[in-house]
Amino acid sequence: MDVSQLKPVVEAIIFASDGPVTPRMLKNYIEEANGVDFEQVIEALNHDYHNSGRAIQIVKVAGGYQMTTRPEFAAWIKKMYMGRTSNRLSRAALETLAIIAFKQPISKAEVAAIRGVNSDGVIKNLLERRLITISGRGEGLGRPLLYSTTPEFLQYFGINDISDLPKPREIEELFGEGKYVDQIIEALSSGDASEDESQEDSHQDANQQSDA
């Protein structure tokens, strides 16, 4: 199959999938596509979408391809989702998630030390949402559990690879200057957190017992 024949097949698979579709998955699904460069197929599809004025595009997310709306239509999409807060992350959750993303693997105690507040409840919520996972144990006293981000984290924020985040040196400078919260949250959330959830989550953090 050539690129023109593959385009509708690849488009259908990505459209029907509930998560990112990797090149390996495409090869498994399309047996006739031996030796095909799927990146070329995706580029051709995006070229078609752009030239026809379509509101969709295919982007790289979490190591695979996913169909999304184009950025210029974000204002209308936000209006459609306005008031639907059940899937949003609170400010406290975004703070904790940002710290884990840039410092992983990291323990609860280290997260709490950076945030200045206990984060047990937030970490539990992030685990339940599969945005972070237990990735091992530390070498310190008591060998604390260590936490890292997951492929679901990449998908949630539309990131293809963890390397797409700011470089370690830039992050170290933000942490050292005490500016990490606002700048990292802005980079990750793009206004995703709601004020009411932030206040509620912060109160829950304050009421949690200290990390052992």
Overview of the structural elements:
The protein has about 210 residues and is mostly helical. It folds into two domains: about 5-80, Winged helix-like DNA-binding domain superfamily/Winged helix DNA-binding domain (Arc Repressor Mutant, subunit A), CATH 1.10.10; about 90-205, Orthogonal Bundle (Arc Repressor Mutant, subunit A). It has eleven helices and five strands. It has helices at about 5-15, 25-30, 40-50, 75-80, 90-105, 110-115, 120-130, 150-155, 170-175, 180-190, 195-205, and strands at about 55-60, 65-70, 105, 130-135, 145-150. The protein has a three-stranded antiparallel beta sheet. A two-stranded antiparallel ribbon has the order 1-2. Strand 1 (about 55-60) and strand 2 (about 65-70) form a beta hairpin. Helix 1 packs across helix 3. The longest helix has 14 residues, at about 5-15. It starts with a helix and ends in a 5-residue tail after the last helix. Mean pLDDT is about 80; it is low at about 185-210.
Overview in brief:
With 212 residues, the protein is mostly helical. Helix content is 52%, strand content 12%.
What's the helix count? 11
CATH superfamily of the largest domain: Winged helix-like DNA-binding domain superfamily/Winged helix DNA-binding domain
Strand content: 5-15%
Q: In percent, how helical is the residue content?
A: 40-55%
Oligomer: single chain
Q: Which architecture of the largest domain does the CATH hierarchy give at level 2?
A: Orthogonal Bundle
Shape: elongated
